[in-house]
Please model this.
Amino acid sequence: MKQFKAVNWNTPENDYVEMFWEQNLKQFWIDTEYIPSKDIDSWKSLSPELREAYKKALGGLTLLDTLQSHTGMPKVIDHIEGLQNKSVLSYMCMMEAIHAKSYSTIFTTVASTTEIDAIFEWASTNEQLQFKAKTIDSYYRKLDKENVSKEEIYMALVASVMLETFLFYSGFFLPLWLAGQGQMVASCDIIKKIIADESIHGVFVGLLAQEIFNTFSEKKKEKLKAELFILMDMLYENEMKYTDHVYSDVGLGSEVKEYIRYNGNKALMNLGFEPRYEVSEVNPIVLNGLNVETTQHDFFSKKSTNYEKTLEVVHLHDEDFDMKKELEMEI
Ligand code: MN3
Ligand code: MN3
Model:
């Protein structure tokens, strides 16, 4: 008979879960604590093409966060070892619901109901966006059955990292790019909170994936790595088309594609692999939107206009995740 267990936090089940729990909690935020109405004038000043691209970018992000909240996290939670690890994933799942809702908070402020309905209709019919969702979902759905293999769990975690560290960034580009020029700054404060969350999600899920990967034979590792690259190539190709669709009217296509490759490499690093995309230079405005330091060690506070709580938050940087390497060595 199945024995049900209670999550016991008295003894940590590994040497990273408490740190991820704490960091997730410290980054907690709610969309309604932001004031995107500060952006109404800025919105009106944007060209119709930029407004259209912005709506599509956010519409696409909404779809991906909906998938991650309603399917990705719940399916994965069921198959991950460790009740504390499951708790961290549950918390992340709840934040995904906040992410998915927060784009609507921006939409509701700047766009009409007719425009908003049109963009949700676009999201549910756009070929490339639907392809992204369908592809990632197919890996999550493999966890639906009775006997799930370790390879299927591994590939579902890979799909999750692909979604969170790779596929989101074609959407994140535009709000960062605009805010870097003083446009739509209050809305971008929300986007930056989402990016900070995705950053730890990608690292945590990547770590869980690596733990499973390390238990495989060399032969199986090669097989799965090949499968991962095929998946990534397919997503990459689709992402290029998606970018053309969303950004060609505003002339940002090639810059967005560079940013996608940059984040594709990050996704690979989260999974413990070497970068495989050639990246020359990512638009510094977009990178600065993320990396500017202040005395508070809050890498998002440069343009922070309305969320005082963030000042207490210490966000993690790539360097902080060198612990991943240390952990790998211990294993
Ligand atoms: Mn999210
Ligand atoms: Mn996430």
